[in-house]
Amino acid sequence: MTAASPATYVRQSSARRNKSEASPETQRAATGERAAYDHPGREVRRYEDIGKSGYDTEVIRPDYDRLIADIKAGLVTHVYVYYVSRLTRQNPKQALAELLPLLAGGLTIVSTTEGTFGPDNTMDLIHLLLRLDAAHNESANKSNAVRGAKALARAAGGHVGMAPFGFTTVERVERTPDGAPVAIRALVAEPTEARALRLAARAVRWGHAVHAVSRYFDRRGIATRGATVGRSRAASAWSDRALALRLRDPRIAGLAAVAIKNAKGDTTGYGLATGVPGENALPAPDTAIITPDEFWSLQSALNGRASMPRRPGDTPSLLSGLGILFCECGCPMKSRRFNAAPTRNAYQCSAPAGRHSCTVSMATLDAYVRFRIGRLIGSVDPADPGDRETADVLAEAARRFAAAHADPATVAQRAAVAAELSEATASLDRLAKTLATASGAAARVVEQQVTAAGARVDALTASLAALDAAAVPAVPLTGWTSGEYGDDGAWWDTAPIAERREFVALFIDRLTVRRAAAKGGRPTHADPWGIVAPRVEFLWAQPTSD
């Protein structure tokens, strides 16, 4: 006779602060006591999955999987649970398909509240099936009720879930589109947290880094949302990501938002709601924390942080840090400055020392790049079909200029619509492939889904076209090529370095610098670009697909 090897399994979908009947503490005590009573002196293995659903088939339960593997390996013969539903709440057919082979192999399941389910008793198996079916139906009904309540609340403009930092919720009665009254939770600004967000927004708009603001919040003891909602995150501190997420949420400006999710379905950010049918928008709060103008100014400041010098006193060079200057080995090139001898300033490969050396004069390359762009602008002939490639480069530069100088609200809305259009188009393609292989009733259902998805794609396409039509890509090329600015170089010589860098980024996607064939060599008046031209390869601006 095989010696008994008992084990306990504890599971709860979410850890509760109270000592409820199904709390992990209660389960541990009850199952451990029963296992020790039934098998005195035997070692009791322990398996726990806290915060893991037993109903959702997509949820991975590491300890449950380990328990099943140990049962199959013969390391566990008796499993003790508080309720059978702690093992699983999935469809009884799926659950039995997994458990029956284990029971046939000699496993005994002991519920401290529902009895014993042994391997050799038909009535035990019937009782187990009834328990599994009841647990599944309970979860299914609860899931349907929760989904229905959330859908009803959203339809009436209510907030679902935890209120984000800066807000709290108040209950009020609204009416659904069908006219039915429903109690919802509406977002309103929470005074203390809203003041903290206003302070953070103002600091970032004035040039302070999000990192510095989050450290300031920690020093001042401003509590995070996690510190105010429960014991598990009571000691949580501010992170750059958490604060940036709040500052990029359109709801702080009283605007409706949409959640941006990754492939796993986790929320990674928030964007501006577009109002397109089918969009799962988060309703705008009753009260805003900052004005829309302040919000868009804040977004511009957040977007501009990456391109700013690391230290306030730094002056960026023309080409480094733009993401366009590369060595022939593929490594980006960086600037190297000599304050005592500025003529020695250069761009050099950022590859580790000793691998190879590739250096080019900063002054010479900057002047050559300006010369090539000026020649490109001045030489285009729209009537010449051979100049089509040059005309395309200028058109792309004009588009980039318009995007850089457009209203931030319009830019954000266009980006949101373009992203939704991409997702909707991919969904339509998948449905179309499914429809091609479907038949009968399934085909009719898929056909309805294709029709709805097609209407959404059409609406998004029209919305994107309207936003594009509203943009005016008026790039002032005449100012750069006229005698007053272009020919004598007056604009280039007097423009701030930031404007020159923007000018270069409009026209160039990549510059590749090859190593010099030999050391030394200086440009001459007769051939000023003879030294640098053979070493530099230009990739002019190319349009990017949305």
Automatic annotation (TrEMBL):
<protein>
    <submittedName>
        <fullName>DNA invertase Pin-like site-specific DNA recombinase</fullName>
    </submittedName>
</protein>
<dbReference type="Pfam" id="PF00239">
    <property type="entry name" value="Resolvase"/>
</dbReference>
<dbReference type="InterPro" id="IPR038109">
    <property type="entry name" value="DNA_bind_recomb_sf"/>
</dbReference>
<feature type="domain" description="Recombinase">
    <location>
        <begin position="164"/>
        <end position="308"/>
    </location>
</feature>
<dbReference type="GO" id="GO:0003677">
    <property type="term" value="F:DNA binding"/>
</dbReference>
<dbReference type="InterPro" id="IPR006119">
    <property type="entry name" value="Resolv_N"/>
</dbReference>
<dbReference type="InterPro" id="IPR050639">
    <property type="entry name" value="SSR_resolvase"/>
</dbReference>
<feature type="region of interest" description="Disordered">
    <location>
        <begin position="1"/>
        <end position="36"/>
    </location>
</feature>
<feature type="compositionally biased region" description="Polar residues">
    <location>
        <begin position="10"/>
        <end position="29"/>
    </location>
</feature>
<feature type="domain" description="Resolvase/invertase-type recombinase catalytic">
    <location>
        <begin position="5"/>
        <end position="157"/>
    </location>
</feature>
<dbReference type="InterPro" id="IPR036162">
    <property type="entry name" value="Resolvase-like_N_sf"/>
</dbReference>
<dbReference type="GO" id="GO:0000150">
    <property type="term" value="F:DNA strand exchange activity"/>
</dbReference>
<dbReference type="InterPro" id="IPR011109">
    <property type="entry name" value="DNA_bind_recombinase_dom"/>
</dbReference>
